[in-house]
Amino acid sequence: MANKHSISTDPHVFLGLVLALLIARPGFAQDNPGLPKVELPRQPFVINTHKISEVRVVPVVGGLSHPWSLAFLPDGDMLITERTGTLRMVRDGVLLPDPIDGLPDDIMAIRFFGLMEVALHPQFESNRLVYLTYTRALADDVGTVALVRGRLDGTTLRDLEDLLVVDPWNRRAPPDHPRADGEFTASARLTFAPDGKLYMTMGGAFGLERDDGTVTFFGKAPLAQDLNSHVGKLLRLNDDGSAPDDNPFAGLQGHKPEIYSYGHRNQQGLAVHPETGVVYATEHGPQNGDELNAIQPGGNYGWPIVSYGRHYDGQRVASRFWEEGMQEPAVLWVPSIATSGLAIYTGDRFPEWRGNLFVGSMQEGQIPGTGHVQRIELNENGEEVARESLLRDLRQRIRDVRQGPDGLLYLLTEDPNGALLRLEPVSAGP
Amino acid sequence: MANKHSISTDPHVFLGLVLALLIARPGFAQDNPGLPKVELPRQPFVINTHKISEVRVVPVVGGLSHPWSLAFLPDGDMLITERTGTLRMVRDGVLLPDPIDGLPDDIMAIRFFGLMEVALHPQFESNRLVYLTYTRALADDVGTVALVRGRLDGTTLRDLEDLLVVDPWNRRAPPDHPRADGEFTASARLTFAPDGKLYMTMGGAFGLERDDGTVTFFGKAPLAQDLNSHVGKLLRLNDDGSAPDDNPFAGLQGHKPEIYSYGHRNQQGLAVHPETGVVYATEHGPQNGDELNAIQPGGNYGWPIVSYGRHYDGQRVASRFWEEGMQEPAVLWVPSIATSGLAIYTGDRFPEWRGNLFVGSMQEGQIPGTGHVQRIELNENGEEVARESLLRDLRQRIRDVRQGPDGLLYLLTEDPNGALLRLEPVSAGP
Question: Which domain holds residue A376?
Answer without folding.
Answer: 44-66+337-430
